[in-house]
Amino acid sequence: MENRQDVNLDLDGKIALVTGGTKGIGKAIADRLARSGATVITTARTNPGYSAGSHYFIAADLSKSEEVTKVFNEVNAQFGGVDILINNMGANTLPSGGFSVLTDEHWDEALQVNLLASVRLDRAFLPKMVSQKSGVIIHISSTSGMFPLWESTMPYSAAKAALNAYSKTLATEVAPQGIRVITVSPGLNKTEAMTKFIDDFAARTGVSSETMTQHLFARLGGIPIGRMAEPEETAELVHFLVSPKASYITGTNYVVDGGNLPVV
């Protein structure tokens, strides 16, 4: 039975760019926005290897400034800009083990992927939004930015915490021009990237992936709902936030963690 929300074309005529939009949360967001009528552009480092359907795909490594310029130029040439920018790109693939195993190169990589790619994309696409006095930017952050684990997420958490602060200040700056900037911080999501993270961490510590999953739940203090999120659950929130129904929402950070964060 079709979800009645899916036939609500509240984004009809909008152009949306979703970075990292071929897998996991990014793909779920891209698909959700398309079902609401948006023309969706996705990026990833490599072609996803399957039909992108209604999504226009651009291969790009957005950790490099010249690749951001490439995406901006192609989007402008094909679509004339964007109304919705979803900065979903991010990765936690660096060595675990704390400060002693992390080099300057590791820290630079974390910042390029998880912070500066979004800064550059915003800087590229914001002038058109300012000129039309409308637009929505969503930064997909992580609860790791508020709940860092030294043994596994140190540079990733630091970069996401910086993204949170940047997103808040940008929201304050551009709100008078009619642009909304919002942060969404997912917790554990059942994605390919999370599966690989758990499998790799388990292999390095000599335990099973199942044991490592339970250890991660315990290390985070437990998840009251008792499971990881499905990417589609985060995508539903993002769809609402970019829709006209959320027209008074900006500068906030929405946590989607199943009740995990032990703070108010």
Strand composition percent: 5-15%
By secondary-structure content and strand pairing, the structural class works out as alpha/beta
Number of spatially distinct domains = 2
CATH topology of the largest domain: Rossmann fold
Tell me the radius of gyration. Answer: 18 Å
Give, in spatial order, the strands making up the sheet with the most strands. Answer: 3-2-1-4-5-6-7
- At the first level of CATH, the class of the largest domain is Alpha Beta
CATH H-tier superfamily of the largest domain: NAD(P)-binding Rossmann-like Domain
Number of strands: 7
Per CATH, the architecture of the largest domain is 3-Layer(aba) Sandwich
Distance between termini? 37 Å
Helix segment count? 7
Which oligomeric form is depicted? single chain
Globular, elongated, flat, extended or rod-shaped: what is the shape? Answer: globular
Q: What is the H/E string?
A: EHEEHEHEHEHHHE
Unreliable spans: 1-5
Please tell me the overall pLDDT.
91
Protein name: SDR family oxidoreductase
Keywords: Oxidoreductase
Organism: Spirosoma terrae
GO molecular function: oxidoreductase activity, acting on the CH-OH group of donors, NAD or NADP as acceptor
Would you give an account of this structure?
The chain is an alpha/beta fold and 264 residues long. The protein has 2 domains: 4-188 and 231-256, 3-Layer(aba) Sandwich (Rossmann fold), CATH 3.40.50; 190-228. The protein contains 7 helices and 7 strands, in the order βαββαβαβαβαααβ. A 7-stranded parallel beta sheet has the order 3-2-1-4-5-6-7, sandwiched between helices. α1 (24-35) crosses α7 and α3 (104-132) runs parallel beside α4. The protein is globular, with a radius of gyration of 18 Å. The protein starts with 14 loop residues before the first strand and ends in an 8-residue tail after the last strand. The model is unreliable at 1-5 (pLDDT under 50).
